[in-house]
Amino acid sequence: QVHVVESGGGLVQPGGSLRLSCAVSGFTLDYYAIGWFRQGPGKERQGVSCISNSDGSTYYVDFVRGRFTIYRDKAKNTVYLQMNSLKPEDTAVYYCALKRQCADTIIAGSWGQGTQVTVSS
């Protein structure tokens, strides 16, 4: 059974850093691409980053490129999102989800429960 669990969120001051984790089970990271998404207050869910299952290629949306880094630890079956230089507008619930490939749509029902990130002074 496929399962994803996000963790690592919290309260951080502007300019600070957090590392989010997406622990997966029921499959290996060679099988699915993993995407990070977020949903801010009153906003729609949006894609943030993705890491490919085939070769570990990474993708970022413009508003996080240069500040966020996605990477994986295949031994731990975990994908991480290192977030630096955080801004108040990064405040959101962050989710990970599965894709066949990063360019594909999200696999239905593969969302985790999310982890809250709050950037505030």
Strand and helix map with partners:
Layout: E1 3-7, E2 10-12, E3 18-25, E4 33-39, E5 46-51, E6 58-60, E7 68-73, E8 78-83, E9 92-99, E10 115-119
Parallel strand pairs: 2-10
Antiparallel strand pairs: 1-3, 3-8, 4-5, 4-9, 5-6, 7-8, 9-10
> Which spans have pLDDT < 50 for at least 5 consecutive residues?
none
| Helical/strand content category | mainly beta
Average predicted confidence as pLDDT: 95
Strand content: over 45%
The shape, in one word, is globular
Number of helices: 0
Computed CA radius of gyration, to the nearest angstrom: 13 Å
> In this structure, how is the largest beta sheet organized?
6 strands, mixed
What is the N-to-C order of secondary-structure elements (H for helix, E for strand)? EEEEEEEEEE
Strand order of the largest sheet: 2-10-9-4-5-6
Number of beta-strand segments = 10
Distance between the termini: 41 Å
**Helix fraction bin:** under 10%
Précis, in short:
0% of the residues lie in helices and 47% in strands. It is mainly beta and 121 residues long.
Description:
- With 121 residues, the chain is mainly β.
- It has strands at residues 3-7, 10-12, 18-25, 33-39, 46-51, 58-60, 68-73, 78-83, 92-99, 115-119.
- The strands form 2 sheets. Strands 2-10-9-4-5-6 form a 6-stranded mixed sheet, with no helix packed on it.
- Strand 4 and strand 5 form a beta hairpin.
- The protein is globular.
- The relative contact order is 0.31.
- The mean pLDDT is 95.
